[in-house]
Amino acid sequence: MSNAKALPLLQPAVEPCCPPLTERPLTGEEAERAAAMFKALGDPVRLRLFSAVASHENGEACVCDISDVGVSQPTVSHHLKKLKEAGLLSSERRGTWVFYRVEPAVLATMGAVLTKAAAS
Amino acid sequence: MSNAKALPLLQPAVEPCCPPLTERPLTGEEAERAAAMFKALGDPVRLRLFSAVASHENGEACVCDISDVGVSQPTVSHHLKKLKEAGLLSSERRGTWVFYRVEPAVLATMGAVLTKAAAS
């Protein structure tokens, strides 16, 4: 977390979205950013896909590894795209396959918004 | 929080929804429950209202305290109802006003799902 340059493609999403929810009412802009991340996890199929990537070896998975959630391949691709747009996953093509990775810094930010709220 | 009987209406929502997201892929049922909570925070207006309650004195606020987010009173009521349905707020009528409270146990559960994922 000390070297932001290590995640050049994700800097906008990795910046803290907002203070802990108990600190003060969020501004409109803070709420827009934070809500977009929560919304990305607010769909059951998307959340299953996300946990499939997150729990895969090294927090990284190929589409071929995570398509057993009972929806079509285009639907899987759609949800993975949404997770990328929200900054929760990054992707990289390697030969035939696209690999997806969980972004721990973003998750930590989201978790802190909630758990600092819960602890105070 | 040591006396569960103080929150009789919220016990189902306070049960852990699921393991940390990195532990294993969520089942369909776990994903349904967890996604419903994330979805409740996935709207900017709802998130602003939620943070307004969470940051108010004692984590509790009257509707009269938190209506300055630029939407109509019926819209405020609609969003507060959604937050209640998701188990994130409880409410209590006191005379003329309904007071809303944040449920710290639910927030802690949601936070742990994310931050344990991030830490591993």
Automatic annotation (TrEMBL), chains A, B:
CDD domains named in the record: HTH_ARSR
PANTHER family: ARSENICAL RESISTANCE OPERON REPRESSOR (PTHR33154:SF18), TRANSCRIPTIONAL REGULATOR, ARSR FAMILY (PTHR33154)
Keywords attached to this entry: DNA-binding, Transcription, Transcription regulation
Record flagged with keyword Cell membrane: no
Cited NCBIfam families: HTH_metalloreg (NF033788)
Protein's recorded name: ArsR/SmtB family transcription factor
Pfam families on file: HTH_5 (PF01022)
Signal peptide: none
Lineage: Bacteria, Bacillati, Actinomycetota, Actinomycetes, Kitasatosporales
Domain HTH arsR-type: 26-120
